[in-house]
Amino acid sequence: MKSSDEERRRIPNFLGSTDARKWQDSNIRLRQPQTGIWFTEGPEFRQWVIDDRSQLWICGIGLAFFYCDYKNSKTHEPLEILGALARQLIAQNEECFEDLKQFYDNDHEKDGSIRSPTVEDLCDLISLVSTRFRMAMIIVDGLDEISNNRAGITRHLKSLNDRSNTIKTLFASRPEIDIGYELEGFSQVSIATNSSDLRLYVTSEIERRTRE
């Protein structure tokens, strides 16, 4: 049975309300042209794209699909992070939405109330819907900005690789010890060691201020 437009609007809200596109759109507007090419053309990223179930940790100020923002504590919550990731995958595939409807129905209690999903529930949902794709990329930036239990949240995000053969994970943060411990075994790229983006930014700022 085909899902109604009303169901498509209502049921995804069960997974939370944080919209990662707000941060994505803002960062795209602020991006200095030509920055980041050293990374996207580098061997670590190219290998991450090619390999199945690949893992990559960017050490430094990062690149992401979901942004953990220190100014917005809501983006530190594991249910919001995982819910936002799940919603993005579900929006791209009709079969994924049917998976969500089943997930939603399973959380209805006999008295009509709805049981809130747990972190494990959402990890399982992401694992399930990822199988609808040949490859699903999970990208989260700013793990170091999480104010509470960031090691635990990092551990849950890392576990997505173990749950599905189609998931690639890429995380970005400062090189904090607790995050590094959880991401042991990930390939690493240190943004701090690359100065080309800084040179581009400084040159652009000098030109802008000269014009003004």
From TrEMBL:
The lineage of its organism: Eukaryota, Fungi, Dikarya, Ascomycota, Pezizomycotina. This is Nephrocystin 3-like N-terminal domain-containing protein. InterPro entries: NPHP3-like_N. It holds the Pfam family NPHP3_N. Keywords: Repeat. It comes from the Eukaryota. The keyword Repeat applies. Residues 63-174 form the Nephrocystin 3-like N-terminal domain.
